[in-house]
């Protein structure tokens, strides 16, 4: 039985036959002169290629490029080294911007206006020294305005004159402040404070009488009214005492200035009172006024009150010892137990 050829051998034979037929057809066309360049390129697509060597100097030779002498390059380097760093940095930034603008200009059409051609070239960067740059008015001022702060969209169309608050007492046309004139002009306030104090005393006296004879349902309201009047009375008393003390101090200072003025008229030089001397003078005048009203007993009472006040302040500022409060509480407990025991014994005896 004969051996049948395989499929691969059959395919190879068909490819060789087609290749030989195409080659013969190309040879006929080439001999007849009917083959075009594109057909020849397509036919020689699988043919081996040959690289051609070209000199780099021949490629770089450009007739439009002009050579710059070395002397001019050296002078240019010296000029650039003499410029400040700020100017060089600015020029570098401008050159970068020009490169990007040239790329965008090449895409657009060139303008043929004669003004642009005839205009002289402008200097893109300044050669001023760094000291000529304007500085900030304050070192804490920002170098650049922040962009996070929103800009107002309101605009003033018509300027409206808004009324400005002013106090006529502090205008320059009123002159300098004089304590004597001020006290004379506002003397009626002291009298009103005294009348207010007297009316509050009468109202408090009447409210206390009503509290005693008030029924149970209105007793809470009467007690609140009495407390309110007592607080108002204390405030009015302190105001009247302050007015009286200020008047006494002003009178003492006025008397001292008058005596000093008389001494200067007689030939004594200028003298200015110290703060310690002024404080001593005011304290003496205050106690003299208290002695005129209540005698030496009132003075002693005032001094004792002042001494207790100072002692209480010192006691509050004094640091407490560790465990002092607990010891005092523990020391009080046995006494409480003893008192309870005594009461129990009394109850037993009575029973």
UniProtKB/TrEMBL annotation:
<keyword id="KW-0539">Nucleus</keyword>
<feature type="region of interest" description="Disordered">
    <location>
        <begin position="237"/>
        <end position="274"/>
    </location>
</feature>
<feature type="region of interest" description="Disordered">
    <location>
        <begin position="1"/>
        <end position="50"/>
    </location>
</feature>
<dbReference type="Pfam" id="PF06102">
    <property type="entry name" value="RRP36"/>
</dbReference>
<keyword id="KW-0690">Ribosome biogenesis</keyword>
<feature type="compositionally biased region" description="Basic and acidic residues">
    <location>
        <begin position="22"/>
        <end position="31"/>
    </location>
</feature>
<comment type="function">
    <text>Component of the 90S pre-ribosome involved in the maturation of rRNAs. Required for early cleavages of the pre-RNAs in the 40S ribosomal subunit maturation pathway.</text>
</comment>
<protein>
    <recommendedName>
        <fullName>rRNA biogenesis protein RRP36</fullName>
    </recommendedName>
</protein>
<feature type="compositionally biased region" description="Basic residues">
    <location>
        <begin position="298"/>
        <end position="319"/>
    </location>
</feature>
<keyword id="KW-0698">rRNA processing</keyword>
<keyword id="KW-0687">Ribonucleoprotein</keyword>
<dbReference type="GO" id="GO:0030686">
    <property type="term" value="C:90S preribosome"/>
</dbReference>
<feature type="region of interest" description="Disordered">
    <location>
        <begin position="84"/>
        <end position="176"/>
    </location>
</feature>
<feature type="compositionally biased region" description="Basic and acidic residues">
    <location>
        <begin position="333"/>
        <end position="342"/>
    </location>
</feature>
<comment type="similarity">
    <text>Belongs to the RRP36 family.</text>
</comment>
<feature type="compositionally biased region" description="Basic and acidic residues">
    <location>
        <begin position="114"/>
        <end position="135"/>
    </location>
</feature>
<feature type="compositionally biased region" description="Polar residues">
    <location>
        <begin position="90"/>
        <end position="100"/>
    </location>
</feature>
<dbReference type="GO" id="GO:0000462">
    <property type="term" value="P:maturation of SSU-rRNA from tricistronic rRNA transcript (SSU-rRNA, 5.8S rRNA, LSU-rRNA)"/>
</dbReference>
<dbReference type="InterPro" id="IPR009292">
    <property type="entry name" value="RRP36"/>
</dbReference>
<keyword id="KW-0175">Coiled coil</keyword>
<comment type="subunit">
    <text>Associates with 90S and pre-40S pre-ribosomal particles.</text>
</comment>
<dbReference type="GO" id="GO:0005730">
    <property type="term" value="C:nucleolus"/>
</dbReference>
<feature type="region of interest" description="Disordered">
    <location>
        <begin position="289"/>
        <end position="351"/>
    </location>
</feature>
């Amino acid at each position: 039985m004969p051996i049948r050829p395989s499929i691969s051998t059959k395919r190879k034979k068909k490819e060789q036959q087609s290749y030989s037929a195409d080659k013969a057809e190309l040879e006929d066309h080439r001999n007849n002169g009917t083959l075009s360049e594109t057909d020849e390129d397509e036919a020689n697509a699988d043919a081996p290629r040959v690289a051609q060597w070209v000199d780099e100097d021949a490629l770089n030779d450009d007739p439009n490029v002009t050579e710059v002498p070395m002397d001019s390059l050296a002078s240019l380097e010296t000029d650039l080294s003499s410029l400040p760093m700020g100017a060089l940095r600015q020029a570098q930034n401008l050159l970068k911007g020009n490169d990007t603008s040239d790329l965008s200009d090449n895409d657009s059409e060139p303008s043929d206006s004669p003004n642009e051609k005839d205009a002289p070239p402008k200097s893109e960067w300044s050669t001023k020294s760094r000291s000529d740059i304007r500085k900030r008015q304050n070192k804490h001022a920002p170098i650049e305005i922040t962009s996070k702060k929103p800009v107002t969209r309101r605009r003033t169309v018509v300027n409206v004159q808004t009324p400005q608050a002013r106090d006529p007492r502090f205008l320059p046309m009123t002159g300098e402040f004089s304590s004597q004139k001020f006290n004379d002009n506002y003397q009626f306030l002291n009298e009103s404070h005294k009348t207010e104090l007297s009316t509050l005393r009468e109202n408090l006296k009447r409210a206390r009488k009503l509290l005693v004879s008030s029924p149970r349902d209105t007793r809470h309201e009467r007690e609140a009214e009495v407390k309110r009047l007592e607080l108002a009375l204390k405030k009015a008393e302190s105001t009247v005492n302050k007015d009286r003390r200020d008047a006494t101090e002003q009178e003492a200072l006025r008397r001292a200035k008058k005596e000093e003025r008389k001494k200067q008229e007689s030939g004594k030089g200028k003298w200015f009172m110290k703060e310690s001397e002024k404080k001593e003078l005011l304290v003496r005048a205050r106690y003299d006024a208290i002695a005129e009203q209540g005698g030496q007993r009132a003075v002693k009472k005032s001094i004792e009150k002042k001494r207790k006040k100072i002692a209480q302040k010192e006691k509050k500022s004094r640091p407490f010892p560790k465990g002092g409060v607990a010891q005092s509480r523990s020391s009080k407990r046995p006494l409480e137990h003893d008192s309870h025991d005594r009461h129990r014994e009394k109850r037993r005896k009575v029973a």
